[in-house]
Amino acid sequence: xxxxxxxxxxxxxxxxxxxxxPDALALVDPPNKQRITGQPPKRLTFAQADRMISSLAAHFxxxxxxSNSVIAVQLPNTIEFALTVLAAYRAGLVVAVLPLLWRxxxxxxxxxxxxxxxxxxxxxxxxxxxxxxAMNAAAEAFSIRHVCGFGNDLPEGMASLDNAIxxxxxxxxxxxxxxxxxxxxxxxxxxxxxRPVPRAHLGLIAGGLSMSLESDxxxxxxxxxxxxxxxxxxxxxxxxxWLLSGGTLVLHHPFDDEVLEQxxxxxxxxxxxxxxxxxxxxxxxxxxxxxxxxxxxxxxxRTPEQVGSSAGWSAQQATLTDVYLFGEAGLFGARRIAEDxxxxxxxxxxxxxxRDLPGSSIAGDILVTPRxxxxxxxxxxxVAAYAPPPPPSxxxxxxxxxxxxxxxYAARLDRVTGAVHITAPPSGVMAVGGYRFLAQDLQExxxxxxxxALLTALPDRISGHRLAGRALDNARARDALTExxxxxxxxxxxxxxxxxx
Length: 501
Description:
One of its GO terms (biological process) is fatty acid metabolic process. This protein is an alpha/beta fold.
């Protein structure tokens, strides 16, 4: 009997690149990594990365983490993130990504909701001691058995992965490499509250393929990723595209304009993956003259309702692909091909990758729901994770299951062009710094700041919105935010904004 061929995983794609070009440059750290994490930057070939991935996978196995258990990861955009995720897949684990700006309360909720058995973090990121935040959250999560970290001065009880990453071990585990297996749990905030969103390897690869084919990323590309990896879009646009292209992934911890330009020019990057607002700002600053090696720019929009009114793309030597993000539900991309650099029209129905090539593979389906909102379906869209609760009914006949995800973004069809216009984000949800919050949470924070205080989300060209505040008693306001469990980076941001006011 012939066993059917299993579909690929991200580790399968990595091993294919390893077999083809073991000595090729694979991963490059940000040059300012010493400032970000206190560790020197690294450059790894595929062979060097493979040895570190195997060492980390052995550490996870020897720690007693069973196959298919969940390991939570909260790391900056450095080499350690890529190595940890690939090591977890090699050990047969499922990765839950935890955004850096989360509060301790959200970390604890995520760990409990996913029954995570381990958490991996960094000692410090931009001066914030994340190892302490992880230890405190793990103490409140019953399922956590192992807390691991990269960096110096880790607290007692936290295992050092800097030691494990260089320790060769023969420990392995037989893992069936099947793309249909669970790979990722990311977290969304909808009007209904906090929502874990699981995905298989195939969903991750489908997201990467959709962006890669639409933007025409070449094989062997040198890709600079300046988008936070702590989401489905973050992993699909960095790890997945890199492994599909078989090139080099240059990492940038968002955001430092001078360092970004330095990395692109020193590494001769031909592809940039970044928030779309940042890409458009670079275009205004004469991207063609300052970064002549760029040929592809993939701009990710956390606020897809703003794409239609965005500025035109003027750089001639590089194309811009707009990628519309809808929380953790899914995404789609459209390359700008108009002479004036305006965004492409988005039509309802199935869309291929690339869009302008007849007969191309179907990447997904776009529809306007009866509610006047945008719906998505396709191989990357986790319909079950967003399935609404069944309505109460006395009927013995079950209602047919929904085969799409309602993103809750208001949308309408243009009567002249037939294009879809996304007009408003979901009600009750506010995106701040690239992270979603319930509007009622922001109102609660503002109430706790005291009389005469102001806390609001202001438009920001890079992150969509930023949290800004003013209080008569700044010390009291910061104490109130800390009591609510707000991440220290957000508290510092409030202090900076209130002092500036």
